[in-house]
Amino acid sequence: MKSALSDFQRTYAHHRITFISDLLSLELAESLRRTSLACAENKKKQSGIIDVLCGLYLQNPDGIAGYFKGDLASVVNQNFPIHRFGREGLLSKAMLEQLANDADSSEYGYAMSFSDDVLRVLWLSAKLANAVGKKASLQDVIAAMALDREWMDELSRSGIAPNCSSADFDDEIGTIVFYATPHTGEGWPREIEFELDKEFRPPYKLEVSTPSGPFAPVRSARVKLNGDEVGDISWPAKPTFSTEVELLLSNKIEFELDGPRFGSIEVAVRGDASRR
Q: What fold characterizes domain 7-162?
């Protein structure tokens, strides 16, 4: 759970976004104005993560929709019943009516108020962009959202998910309890012992696939864990399998491989990702 910003921190962050142009590209700054105007016209006091995503879509619907699975147009309609695309989405309804009637313009303002999560995602967007010498863009905001599980969970609750999977070191690497790439060639071990790191907790999952990297697939493989057969694969009908397993403090994994000389498999055992 992220800690709340203090009033001074929040005020400073809003000032940087609103009045200083060193963080955001012109397109992203314009998108945030759309977001704030849509929030004002839909009686929302503050823009959250979903509001910002809707603002990105209002700014560039064709460019943004391709990054996500789900009906973004429907989410926008539900989140902002009152909204406008194009240049009209940057002008208030009252101002548009005055222009249409050729009337004298009167002042109409709206607040730009963002949740702490939005301020954090904008700064992370700027950090990603600054690393390659540019200001934060619409795409940088999408990338920043993808780096935080809480933000992605919020999008998921609205029926939106990334169109592409993202590499996650903690999930993909930090969960590994055991890993090996047995080959069919002579000299490769057919059984390996490993100790269970006490930091890992169940559930444990064993995953097997063929081939490993650039090597040839095996024709078939059987895997035993602590004397019990836990699964098998075959090429090409069944090249992968995964199953939950129980681990001991000391474990032995065994392989029966049938295939060409350089046939290979990958074997991994994973533990609970929330252990850290």
A: Double Clp-N motif (1.10.1780)
